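Page header: ASSEMBLY MODEL / two components / 866 residues total.
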Amino acid sequence: MTGLAALAACIATPSTSSGKPALESLRIDAARLQRSLEELSVFGRPSGGTFADGVSRIAYSDADVAGRRYVMDLMRAAGLEPSIDAAGNLHGLRKGRDPSLKPIVFGSHIDSVPDGGNFDGDLGSLAAIEVMHTLQDAGIRTRHPLEVSIWSNEEGGTLGSRGQIGTVEAADLDRMFAGVSMRDGLRRIGGDPDHLEGARRPPGSVQAYLELHIEQGGVLDKAGIPIGVVEGLVSIDEYEVEIRGFANHAGTTPMPERRNALLAAAKLIEAVQELVTSMPGRQVGTVGQLVVSPNAPNVVPGLVRHSIEFRDLSEDTLAHLGAAIRERAAQVARDTHTEITIRPTEHLPPALASPVIQRQIEASAGALGFKTMHLPSGAGHDAQIMARLAPMGMIFVPSVAGVSHSPHELTRWPDCANGANVLLQTILRIDRS
Amino acid sequence: MTGLAALAACIATPSTSSGKPALESLRIDAARLQRSLEELSVFGRPSGGTFADGVSRIAYSDADVAGRRYVMDLMRAAGLEPSIDAAGNLHGLRKGRDPSLKPIVFGSHIDSVPDGGNFDGDLGSLAAIEVMHTLQDAGIRTRHPLEVSIWSNEEGGTLGSRGQIGTVEAADLDRMFAGVSMRDGLRRIGGDPDHLEGARRPPGSVQAYLELHIEQGGVLDKAGIPIGVVEGLVSIDEYEVEIRGFANHAGTTPMPERRNALLAAAKLIEAVQELVTSMPGRQVGTVGQLVVSPNAPNVVPGLVRHSIEFRDLSEDTLAHLGAAIRERAAQVARDTHTEITIRPTEHLPPALASPVIQRQIEASAGALGFKTMHLPSGAGHDAQIMARLAPMGMIFVPSVAGVSHSPHELTRWPDCANGANVLLQTILRIDRS
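Prediction written out in full:
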């Protein structure tokens, strides 16, 4: 710590009678967090745009490379020496007082979807660095080592965090992403696709993983609650449905003779909605993709392919929904004289947050005077991967109107700061426990 | 008539006591009709295929040009001198006994859809020439002039028959069809797009127009009835529906917060089915084209565009259906929190068949021992256009299983011959009336 930083920490942080800063009253620098989010937003900003025009910081792009360089500068300013692992993740380690303890890891990602917003991933990443900066300013050394991790290519399939648990296959590296192979992309950001094993961490080697993230849904915003305590990341079941009817002339085929694949699809879409909403719980079900063939106004559709996706924390609920939709599909096929096949294409298990960490987040928020709400995360995050290595906790802050993956994505500055303070206090609480 | 033909006619045709052939017992040559259909099928046949593999004789293609040359040879063999009008239609005129009378015109088309069948259009065209051949063989001269017309480019929008009524615009000629402009296409088949007025016929200049065609639906085949008496060609109302919801994350957007455009579309598709089938009558309603945006399994659909098409002989029924679906759409929009706009894109008036000609077809079929059924034509035909010039009648023969616009299109040979004989006898009956 420089003399100037120590002075600033003394001014900013009230001391206990023993002369040490009172950890419970330690706060991040909200203005500095906002400034860093604004500065990062420049990398990938649409030409001629402002912060409000969002960002396209696709992994491995020039904007990603430039953004990562900026983030490494922020780490250095926070007293960290950045390193890049073989999976392209950025790490900054802050030593603890007890070298026998495992690190507390926290972070997020700074890559974005095309035409995304300036909060998804960026907030959790820069809040993590801000926490480090705050601790350095206050001259506080924790018992555990602390490590900030900025995961590479979250939006393209959590490639970076998967590198930590060793589930990136050669086929993943061969896959094209935004015009380059993942392999070449990794090289562009300083990774080493030929030695990915270097990025692996064994399970049990991390004390806890924490991630602050915008909710990306509208539950907190609608309820007016500033802090969400994530119960877990939902399990996902995906199906591909193929409906075979018979394509025929829309003028010459009487209604009773039709084998209309799109009519069958309509009935299935309504069945998904009805099944999901008729039982208690927060499960969701979506038909998001649908393609009609031959897709002409004057031809009775002969073939429809569509997706079905169910999400819930409970795999039992998903299994029940899967069985129920198959039953409905059999009935729809009989009613419409079509053939319907439903093929499971993906099953993601849930990643439950540690109940202990959930209580620590809740207690930290409570001490800061914030109301909290427990909720599942319907979206996937790096935390889902890291839950395989360590007890995991996630903090959500409100997304205005639930908008995300859009330039209109917005989390208000006070909510950003509140989330960062809850992250800071939770880290300190875990460190003490 | 050659001596040999006269001899054949004498053998084939019983004579009345006066020595003239009994017109009621005159029959077409079924074997010759089959042979000509088989020979025509070669032009546009898939390489290495057989008759059963269907045909791609797209208008203006080399196959179309070759097929038309074959048809002109058939006309010559039937004693006709073929001519090509400015709209590319082939005509063959047979003089009548009374030069003051207007011609009875009959025919169809020989162009096909891609991967079409060997009966749609071909049967009506070659049966018309076969009728002429039969009359020539029998040495029969009718009172009215008879004219066979093979209309150009029926499948691309009845361009040839529309040339007869003068509704082909410059924009039609500029339109691209199968890789060439209609204008250049017309030139390839001997038409004269710069002097289309030469193809026009004034209303009232034709005594009657008759067309034999395969049903293209499965009504006759299912009922086991060999001859359909067409009541008219249905009116068509087409609408374009736009449903605006809000595209959002399928994981983070709770079910009650969704504005799901595809769910709204599903409800409308079911509403179309229910409205059309809950009232008596033979009206049909189809949603054949539907496009989802952004169309990803993990995104709640924000935008759906789809067609709605209603068909019936009665424009009142169509108007009622249009009003009813708008009412339903308003309810669906409220229920799903979406915005729905329904824009009419096309209104085709019905073309009613002449009741007199319907009775003449029925009487001719009855005299031949065939059961008949009255039914509308749900598909469009050149007869729809010619109905603006003259009293019109159409004869349908069964399509096996209702399949058409497909290589599997099939009308059995006896049904082809029966239809041609009804055409012949109806022409003679009109000629006498």
